[in-house]
Design a protein that fits this description.
Elements (H helix, E strand, L loop, with lengths): L6 H26 L2 E8 L2 H8 L5 E9 L8 H4 L7 E9 L5 H11 L7 E2 L2 E2 L5 E5 L2 H17 L9 E4 L4 E2 L7 H4 L12
Parallel strand pairs: 6-7
Antiparallel strand pairs: 1-3, 1-6, 2-3, 2-8, 4-5
Helix pairs in contact: 4-5
Length: about 190
């Protein structure tokens, strides 16, 4: 006759099995997601991030600086407009739920891509419109999307959005992250146009 299991052994086995199931579920879920990264600039990053965070399929947004030559830039340097960095949003998204082309559709609706180095009251190269591509496929899709929008005559002037290979991305200071979540009445010049 075997002795009954100790009280702790039965509970420990159940906890172990639950943890194994949770880990398997997370692993399967991660494999089902097709994670991609996009980096977009279109004026002040506060308003862009707020719109992008609400797009179904977006997993994470980080505002920051990219496209310039200055290493480890901060807002005080970038706002001068001499670093050539653009205020940008780096986006992690599930390409099974949101394609890069669909993301660009939102991008071209949330800012005016026909104004050079300006969005609303914000002027300077740090506010330019740029698609920083992460792959040859993203570059091709960006160029095709720009052509399609230009051909549609949706905008009265041609699109001036740059398509540039991504360079090192520097996350902005903490107070810029999720800025409009922390400051709901904060400044933005972004909205989704029809």
């Amino acid at each position: 006759m075997t002795s009954p299991p100790l009280i702790g052994e039965d509970v420990t086995m159940k906890i172990y099995l639950i943890l194994c199931l949770m880990l398997m579920t997370q692993t399967i879920g991660a494999k089902l997601m097709k994670l991609e990264t996009a980096t977009l600039a279109g004026g002040c990053f506060w308003g862009m991030e707020e719109i992008i965070r609400n797009i179904p399929g977006v997993i994470k947004t980080t505002v920051g600086y990219t496209g310039g030559k200055v290493e480890n830039p901060n807002y005080e340097i970038v706002k001068l407009g001499t670093s050539n960095h653009a205020e940008s949003v780096q986006i992690e998204f599930d390409a099974n739920k949101l394609s890069f082309t669909e993301l660009l559709g939102f991008f071209f609706r949330m800012h005016d891509p026909t104004t050079l180095n300006q969005q609303g009251n914000d002027k300077g190269t740090q506010y330019r419109s740029v698609i920083f591509y992460h792959s040859k496929e993203q570059k091709q899709l960006a160029l095709e999307t720009i052509k399609k929008i230009n051909d549609s005559k949706k905008w009265p002037r041609p699109i001036v959005t740059e398509v540039v290979e991504v360079s090192k991305f520097y996350p902005a200071e903490d107070y810029h992250q999720d800025y409009l979540q922390k400051n709901p009445n904060g400044y933005t010049c972004h909205w989704l146009r029809n």
